[in-house]
Amino acid sequence: MRKILGISALLLVVCVVTAALSNSFLSAYNLENLIRRTALFGIISIGVAFVIVTGGIDLSVGSVVCLVGCGVPWLLTTHGWPVPLALMMAVVASVGIGLFHGLLITRLRLPPFVVTLCGLLLYRGITRGFTRDQTVGFGAEFKGLRLLSTGEIPIPFVSGFSIPAPWIFLLGVAIASAVFLNRTVYGRHLLALGSNEQAARFSGINTGRMTMLAYVISSSLAGLGGLLFVLDVNSAQPVDFGNFYELYAIAAAVLGGCSLRGGEGTIVGVIVGAALMQVLRNMITLVTTHNNIEFAIIGAVILSGVVADELVRRRLRRA
Predict the structure, then answer these.
(1) Is residue 278 within 8 Å of residue 40, measured between CB atoms?
(2) β-pairing, 136-137 with 152-154?
(3) 296-316: per-residue pLDDT in tens?
(4) Which one of 62, 111, 313, 318 is at 20 to 30 Å from 147 when CA atoms are compared?
(5) Is 61 within 8 Å of 222 (Cβ atoms)?
(6) Domain with 291 in it
């Protein structure tokens, strides 16, 4: 709870500072765009959080976003697939990637870093191959489908402001994830696995199955995020679509209280962390002329989160 309060206070401070330095920050257009981006990145960040809770890491998120985000419009517009069949293929691909990662990690005992790093290269390479590096998109078609991401829900009694549709998906994912992680046996098993894998195994937990479940959740939410991202922007280039999104997701999870050592994390904290990352990006765009320092800030955020986690653990051990 202290971590959530701390990151929430930091988010508030950054918002106040940005609003003071830029008049555009509190405009309806900017706030709606900020909320939309927070929802989209919040979805993939929750998926990564499940893996981090088990003590693992998933570096393939951005490439899964690219695979689904480019693959769905490619199937619909280039090959004329029906919408339900294309969406089903996206689900199968996303779940299959998670199972593939889980099997390599649990059966062959390969390090998660190596497995998902190879996935990062593999899935983007596959996407660039079948699209031949060409931009894909929906054009003027599939307007109804695009409403899943571009749609807005008006707020009663508030003029000129709406809630972007992706927040409905984020809310559903967040509630389901929070209930699963905190109110079910399997959620407690995931936390126990991250705290001490050997102890969890000796207590009768099927650690291999739990690890596979975490990677399936991560890749599935990355696939959902990839679909919503491409529906939002309408087109994607396989060479850079989803680039470094795994870093935003990991940073949001770490800022939100997920320990990279495993065994600790909250869904609410992850969402607040995702919001902070997007506000920081927005501040860089609105306040400074140095947009190229964005990745430096992401690196500093992840490093500060790891350092803070280590300091807290040391203090708890001394106590």
Answers:
(1) no
(2) unpaired
(3) 877 887 777 777 767 776 776
(4) 62
(5) yes
(6) 28-150+161-314
Asked if residue 6 is part of any domain, the answer here is no
pTM of the model: 0.93
How far is C-alpha 40 from the chain's CA centre? Answer: 7
Span 127-139, average pLDDT: 94
Q: What per-residue confidence (pLDDT) applies to 316? A: 67
Whether 16 is in a domain gets the answer no
**Cα 87 versus chain centre, distance:** 19
Buried b / exposed e over 236-249, threshold 16 CB at 10 Å, is bbbeebbeebbbbb
C-alpha 319/C-alpha 313 separation (Å) is 10
How far is the C-alpha of 125 from the C-alpha of 184, rounded, in Å?
Answer: 38
Give the whole-angstrom CA distance, residue 297 versus residue 63.
22
Residue 152 β-bridge partners? 164
> What value, to the nearest 5°, has the Cα angle with vertex 244 and ends 20 and 214?
110
Quick one: pLDDT at residue 104? 97
Distance between CA 179 and CA 22 in Å, rounded? 39
Vertex 104: Cα angle to 99 and 106 (nearest 5): 90
User: Which two tokens mark 161?
Assistant: 């402001």
Domain count, the chain: 1
Cβ atoms 57, 267 nearer than 8 A:
no
Phi and psi of 265, rounded to 5°? 165, 150
Q: Is residue 17 part of a domain?
A: no
